[in-house]
Every structure is written in structure tokens, then in C-alpha cells.
Amino acid sequence: MGKKGPTLSKSDIARGLRELGLNKGDGVLVHSSLSSFGYVVGGANTVIDALLEVVGEEGTILVPTLTGTEHHGPTNPPVFDVKRTPCWTGRIPTAFMERPEARRSLHPTHSVAGLGPEIESLLEGHADSLAPCGLATPYYKLAAAGGHILLIGVGQGSNTTLHTAEELAEVSYHMQKEPTDCIIIDYDGTRHTKQMFLHQWGTPRQFERIDKELLDRGIMEMGQAGNSVLRLIRSMEMLEWVVDILRKEPRYLCE
């Protein structure tokens, strides 16, 4: 069988990212679908190399390396090994966190991996946050530093920072009512027990409803690389707008 869709190189992807508005020195949280491009020569690592080339040595890239499931909670606490626990967020995050120079935050359900000069400060303290995506997490810290969210071939349903908005607005449906004693194994192999609140699964979301509004408000730009639709979002502007809505209409993001 032949390859479906266009064939893309690193330069093709880098060009699409630059045309979208990603620049040297930017900080960006990347949600992605490798298959959305068509055929990428070199696979996931080519996409990562293109991202690194575009933001340069002074830029910072984060990817969600999520491990949480609907079964985690006080009676079934997660056990997270930062070196060994695989993520379910796709081939690009998996390849990213396997790079020797990458670092991964120590959160048992919503870890983030990153590369760049600001990584230590962005990832520090994630395991001590009482909520997975709150003020002390990479999701909010990147937004506060003027960072972006990049959606590569995925829609707003993959935008984890919308959970940050839900946590900041303290919507009632989002968090479990009781804390969980989570097990975390760090880079040195030391085992820690951290008590925190985990997400409550089961409430259907309608994250896609904000897509047109973000575009109309100038908070988001759209572009393309191969078959992949690209979205670049100014994270703090999105958060401020969505949190304001949720405080007035708490179920705005629910179906």
C-alpha cells in the first residue's frame, strides 16, 4: 500500500509553524497528532526537531505526558514512575520524553515533559500542587510567562489548559471531593507519597465551542502543514476569557 497524504520534511513543518506565528524564544505547550500531517519523513522526532528549530535555543517546548485514568482515586491511587510510566498522549510526546535531555514533571496523572532554558522553573513543584492543572503547575506557569498553546492536528478537546480554567473557576463537576495519597517515584528512584486532589471523570465536555470565539477575538491563529490544521493560542488571554465565563456560567464547557 502507498503512503496516504503528502510527504513532509522537517523544513516543511518548520515553515508551517513560522507562518502560523511561532517565533524564536517562544514558550509553547504542544498537543499533537502525528498522523494528521500525512507522511512525515523521520516520524515524531522530525516534528520535535522542527519545533526546536523554530523556537531556537532560547525557546521552551512542553508536551503533556498524561497518565491519569478514570479509575484513579482514593481507593485506587496512581503509582507514577517519572522514568518508566508511559503516557497516553501520542507518539510525539512519547518520543519527546524519551530524549535524554528532556525533563518530566513529577505529577502522577498530569505530568508534562519539556526542553528549554525555562524548564526547571516551569516543572518545579508540580507534585506539590493540590490540583493537576492549577496555579503551581506548568500549564498555568507557561501562560503567566506569556506562553502559547499549539494544537497540531487536534481540536480544543485536547487543550488541557482548559482544565486549568475549570480549576481556577472552581467549577463543581471537575475535581474529586476527597484527596488521594499518590505514589511518585522520582529520577533518583526515591518513592514519595503526595496527597492531592485528582480529576473527577465522567462529565462530558464541549471544549470545541470556544474555537470560533478564540479565532474571532484574535486569541488564536490558524495555519496548516501538510494535512494538519495548526492552532496557536495565547494561553493567558484564553484563560482570562474562559475563567470569566465559567464564573458566570459554571457549566459553559459542558455538553
- By DSSP, the count of extended strands is 12
H/I helix tally: 8
Strand content: 15-25%
* Overall 3D form: globular
Q: Mean pLDDT across all residues, rounded? A: 97
Instruction: Characterize the biggest β-sheet.
Output: 7 strands, mixed
Q: Which regions have little confidence, pLDDT < 50, spanning 5+ residues?
A: none
Q: Please give the order of strands in the largest beta sheet.
A: 6-7-4-2-8-12-11
- The separation of the N and C termini measures 40 Å
Rg over CA atoms: 18 Å
- Structural class by sheet pairing and helices: alpha/beta
Number of domains: 1
Helix percentage range: 25-40%
Q: What pattern of helices and strands is seen along the backbone?
A: EHEEHEEHEEHHEHEEHEEH
Oligomer designation: single chain
What does this protein look like?
There is one protein chain. The protein has 255 residues and is an alpha/beta fold. It has one domain (7-248). Helix content is 28%, strand content 21%. The chain has eight helices and twelve strands. The strands form three sheets. It has a seven-stranded mixed sheet with strand order 6-7-4-2-8-12-11, sandwiched between helices. The chain has a three-stranded mixed sheet with strand order 5-9-10, with no helix packed on it. Strand 11 and strand 12 form a beta hairpin. Helix 1 packs across helix 2 (44-55). It is globular. The model has no long low-confidence stretch (mean pLDDT 97).
